[in-house]
Design a protein that fits this description.
Helices cover about 35% and strands about 15% of the residues. By secondary structure, the chain is an alpha+beta fold. It has 2 domains: about 70 residues, no CATH class; about 140 residues, no CATH class. β3 and β4 form a beta hairpin. α4 crosses α6.
Length: about 220
């Protein structure tokens, strides 16, 4: 069971790379976070330290008194956190206005490259073709990032063209909606290329087509 961090350890967690979870601190600080189950030391050189899923939940929790690291994370949000931390755009009514120009493209590209590096550093074989632990605990954000990084456009707050990524009752699956069949299949191809298993389905009552996507394990 992970233990809640001290105030000093929380500052180290808050300063972690938002995309990869890579930590910077003294050896004593990092070792203490490992002991608490909030970080791990990568077995390959340069033996950097990264947040565990419990550490990511602590980092994303609101300021103020800390809840235990075993508390379930809040529902993913499309809104950037305070301080301008990058957030993937999930589309639709959960979307927030934002720049779609060169600055956003650079942010998305940097976040995607950071995620690929996290896959490489945390995977047992150094592969980048399968989702990592962070993605499996942040399904909506991970799928949305893969789509936005590939050039797909999220739907705006008033609907319209673009993808929408939503949580589902299934523990390791998200639903992806698109404006038409062609765009939806394009989203499916992108997610499959990013290491997700994808199937296309129809809602029984509305007849709306959607994708059900889950992180591939092997």
């Amino acid at each position: 069971m992970a233990l809640s961090p001290t105030a000093a350890q929380r500052r180290v967690i808050d300063a972690a790379d938002p995309a990869t979870g890579r930590l910077k601190g003294t050896e004593a600080q990092l070792a203490a976070l490992v002991k608490r189950g909030l970080a791990f030391r990568h077995p390959r050189p340069p033996h950097d330290h990264f947040l565990t899923p419990a550490g990511h939940r602590i980092r994303e929790s609101p300021a103020g008194p800390r809840t235990p690291a075993t508390t379930e994370p809040a529902a993913p949000s499309a809104a950037p956190a305070a301080g301008g931390v990058f957030a993937a755009r999930v589309g639709g009514e959960d979307a927030v206005p934002g720049d779609a120009g060169p600055a956003r493209l650079r942010e998305v590209r940097s976040a995607w490259q950071g995620l690929l590096e996290l896959r490489r550093m945390t995977g047992s074989d150094g592969s980048t073709d399968r989702p990592c632990g962070w993605e499996r605990t942040h399904l909506v954000q991970a799928a949305a990032l893969a789509l936005e990084a590939a050039g797909h456009r999220p739907a705006g707050p008033d609907g319209g063209d673009g993808y929408r990524v939503r949580a589902t009752p299934q523990p390791e699956a998200v639903a992806v909606y698109g404006p038409d069949g062609t765009a939806l299949r394009g989203c499916g191809a992108t997610l499959e290329g990013a290491g997700w298993q994808v199937g296309e389905y129809t809602e029984p009552r509305t007849r709306v087509r959607y994708l059900l996507a889950s992180p591939r394990k092997v």
